[in-house]
Amino acid sequence: MKLFGSGHGACPGCGLPIAVKSVLEGTGPCFVANATGCLEIISSQYGKSAWGVPYIHSVFENSAAVAAGIEAALKALGRKDEGPVVVFAGDGATADIGIGCLSGMFDRGHDVLYVCLDNEAYQNTGNQQSGLTPPGSNTTTTPAGKVLPGKVKPKKDMVSIALAHKARYVATASVAFPRDITRKAKRALEFEGPKYLQIHSVCVTGWGIAGKQAIPVARLAVETALYPLVEYEDGQLVRVRKIKDRKPVEEYLKPQRRFRHLFKHPKGKEVIAELQRIADENAKKYGLDE
Ligand SMILES: Cc1ncc(C[n+]2csc(CCOP(=O)(O)OP(=O)(O)O)c2C)c(N)n1
Ligand SMILES: [Mg+2]
Fold first, then answer.
1. Which candidate among 27, 110, 130, 197 keeps its CA 20 to 30 Å from the CA of 259?
2. What's the gap in Å between 130 CA and the centre of ligand 2?
3. Could you tell me the CA-to-CA distances from 109 to 48, 104, 240, 264, 276 in Å, in that order?
4. Mutation test residue for ligand 1: of 11, 117, 118, 122, the one with most atoms within 8 Å of CB
5. CB burial class (10 A; 0-12, 13-18, 19+) of residue 216?
6. What is the pLDDT of residues 260-270, one digit of tens each?
7. Do 220 and 229 contact (CB within 8 A), yes or no?
8. Cα(59)–Cα(15) distance, rounded to whole angstroms?
9. Ligand 1 within 6 A of 122 CB?
């Protein structure tokens, strides 16, 4: 039986099944806790579950607490060897409503791999902004209008937040590079204690792209340095994905409907310049340019 197989109802081009399959390829059989969100909706319909591993759907905010409970129970029962405990949770579940439970899980030192599926908004409920929505993005709660050019605030730095909790392994990945996701999931499990993996996961409806553009657009996020792929072990930066001929951020923004207004809005130029500044800063901070 596949660990995550057919039978799910994701949109063609959705990044979530790619992310989940790639993680499970690295972890092997495991215990999964999944926060409410798109992944749960597409994979756990009654009679059509796509999961070939023990799976618990938690509520929106408490997947880290549920996973902590599973891990504590396995320890108490002497069943730790039956497999690792893995959380899958959206960016809203992780960076906003579930951040308290996640902080507690990190703090108590549970042996859990927490995977944030970052599609950069509350996509299950129709593209509302989350703490991980990037600046300039048009969402239903940050609509681009006469005054504001989409979201104004920056993307929350969850990598730094995880590092500040002394999570043992902290990394980012992208659905454009599935083998890298698998390697990172496997590597994460070599560390006992809390681990955080954040995967940039394209959403065709929320971002306003066709299915066939999904992977090229996801790749551009990495190639512009807007989504740097980095890896920390016990607080030390150990690896980054280098970029050859870094592309300007416009190349990533242009194909997506959520950023379309930036090319017409009076404040659009300013936002694009700010996004380019963020990309340049990422490239400098992590030494991304080859
Ligand atoms: C306490 C609570 N508030 C709101 C909701 C409605 N709700 C369900 S899923 C969701 C958005 C999920 O966003 P995210 O975590 O980013 O996952 P995605 O669907 O984008 O993968 C919301 C707002 C809920 N289920 N529970
Ligand atoms: Mg989301």
1. 197
2. 7
3. 35, 8, 26, 48, 37
4. 122
5. middle
6. 999 999 999 99
7. no
8. 22
9. yes
d(CA 153, CA 191): 34
pTM score, whole prediction: 0.98
Q: What residue type is 137 in one-letter code?
A: S
125 lines ligand 1 (CB under 6 A): yes
Domains and CATH numbers, the chain: 16-286 (3.40.50.970)
Look-up: residue for tokens 């955080």? Answer: 196
Segment 54-112, tens digit of pLDDT:
999 999 999 999 999 999 999 999 999 999 999 999 999 999 999 999 999 999 999 99
Round to whole Å and give the CA distance between 132 and 285. 19
pLDDT tens, 116-164? 999 999 999 999 999 999 999 999 999 999 999 999 999 999 999 999 9
Q: Give residues with Cβ within 8 angstroms of 183, minimum separation 6.
A: 26
Ligand 1 neighbourhood includes 92 CB (under 6 angstroms): yes
